[in-house]
Amino acid sequence: xxxxxxxxxxxxxxxxxxxxxxxxxxxxxxxxxxxxxxxxxxxxxxxxxxxxxxxxxxxxxxxxxxxxxxxxxxxxxxxxxxxxxxxxxxxxxxxxxxxxxxxxxxxxxxxxxxxxxxxxxxxxxxxxxxxxxxxxxxxxxxxxxxxxxxxxxxxxxxxxxxxxxxxxxxxxxxxxxxxxxxxxxxxxxxxxxxxxxxxxxxxxxxxxxxxxxxxxxxxxxxxxxxxxxxxxxxxxxxxxxxxxxxxxxxxxxxxxxxxxxxxxxxxxxxxxxxxxxxxxxxxxxxxxxxxxxxxxxxxxxxxxxxxxxxxxxxxxxxxxxxxxxxxxxxxxxx
Length: 334
Hints:
334 residues; 2 domains; 23% strand; Dihydrodipicolinate Reductase, domain 2; alpha/beta; Rossmann fold; 5-stranded parallel beta sheet
């Protein structure tokens, strides 16, 4: 199996290499590609040195699979060129997610939408992935009518610039090596919360909020679900947290909700409030699972439910989900 990782030197790209190793994907040849400024750099994978090549060279190598973490503009430019060579592209950017013909995949939910003819596969937004994994079985059982979502997203969701800004503001005397990087946010993030994720659009929402609306409907194959969201950035290094309010069309019992959540692959229920047990970003760090707790009725509406959903946004929210898609393609398509 010949696999390329495009954007291998970045925060998510390097995690993709780690997860490929952890998942024991059989790789006969690994191609690590990045922008021109990184060409020639050395990366060690499974004890072997690999030199970073240009994206053009990676295309010419005709890999079986190319996992992208290089941004939307690079994906729009290069993903079709890989696809023309017969490569299956798994793209972590927002470039292809809402094209009707492009699968948007969380493997535990809808890997069946991938066929031998779909050579570009979109990896969903990190906050969407963790939420729909928690909601999947519940939607099948009780039919979601409406979702009201508030996210508390860590600075790692903004890449190294977000991490660096928080680090500089928290420890200004340390002069970190990344001090040359521009700020990721228009305001201080240390000791602060910004109700601002992505860019604002004309209707007052942000691009991160729009992704939660559109991607949720596409993945759950439920365009009728009413969805609204508020995305916040918080001074946490890694791990996204979400308060998810669900209104179902059908009645439910809490015991059945817990049973369905516990039966969902990739979900771990942590819900013992009497002993202060609930999901926290610090405990989700560097784990692949989605953690769900604070499971309780919303008594203000018929068939209402509240959930608290937490996951490592760099792992399941990006790298792990992409590698799981690659594994599905290897096992079922190639």
